[in-house]
Fold this protein.
Amino acid sequence: MRKRIIAGNWKMYKTPRESVDFVAKFLPMIHDHTRDEIVLFPTSTSLSHVIEAVKGSNVRAGAQTMHWLNEGPYTGQTSPTMLASIHCTHVLLGHSERRMYAHETDDMVNWKLKAALLHGLTPVVCVGESLEKRQSGLTEAVLRWQIACALNGVEPESSAALVIAYEPIWAIGTGSTATPNQAQEAHAIIRREIAATLGSARAESTRILYGGSVKPENTATLMAQPDIDGALVGGASLDPDTFCRIVKYQTA
Ligand code: 13P
C-alpha cells in the first residue's frame, strides 16, 4: 500500500507571518489525520518559520527548490546540506515554473535528485507535458524522457524516498484539471518508466502525485485512480479551510 501525500506548493505567496498564521489555523483542523502524509512547501523566507511551527505535528515542510552542490559561489542558491541543517524533510525538484523561468534542465533535475537522496531529503520530482506536446500526441514521449533523464544513474536501493509529481503544464493555475482518466493514463506511463529504470518493486512503491488545478471538488475522483497516490496543490492550498477539505477528501 502506498500512503498518499497531500502537499501544498505555496509558490511565491505568503510572508513568514502569513505562513505561520496558516499553520496555526490549519493544524487543529487536521491534527488527527493519519490516512495521508501532509506536506507544505513555503517560499524560502518562510521555510524555517513553518518548520518550527509544524514541529511535533503530522505536517512536514519542504523547500521549493535547491542547488545540487553543498556550497560554492552560487548567489541566490540554497544547498541540500543547508536544507537538512534546518530539519527540512522534503524538496520540490524540476517544477515546470522552475524549468520555464529559471531554465532548469533535465540534467540539473537529475543532479538535484541524486543530491537530495544523498542528503536524506524526500525529493518530489515534477514532470509534465505542455499543451502543445499533448496536442501533438507527444505526452508519453515527454513523460518517459523526463523520467528517464531524472532517474539516470539513480540506484533502486537508494531511491526509496523518491516521489514523482505529474503536473501537466496546461492544468497548472488554469482551472482546467486533467480528467481522472487523463491523469491515470499519465501516471501509468510514469510508473512503467520507473519500472524500466529502477525495477518493478521500486515502481510499485513510488508515490506519484497529481498536480494541476486540484480543488476540493475534484480531489476524490482523482484519488480514486489506481496510480494516483496524492496531490500537489497550488492555489487551493493557500487557504487553510480549502486545503483542509482537500486533505480530508472522501472516496465514494
Ligand atoms: P495549481 O493547483 O494552482 O494549478 O498549481 C499546481 C502546481 O503547480 C503545484 O505545484
